[in-house]
Amino acid sequence: MGSEPSKEELIREAAIRLFSRNGFYNTRAEEIAHEAGVAVGTIYNYFANKEEILLAIFKTDFEERMQLFRKLLESDLSVPEKIRRILEEHFHRLQERGDLAQLLLQERFNPGPGFRTKLRELYREMLARVEKLIQEGMEHNWVRPCHPKIVAYALFGVVESISVYALTYPEEAAQGILSDAPAELADFIWNGLKKGGDNDD
Question: Which domains, and CATH codes, for the chain?
Answer without folding.
Answer: 1-47 (1.10.10.60), 50-193 (1.10.357.10)
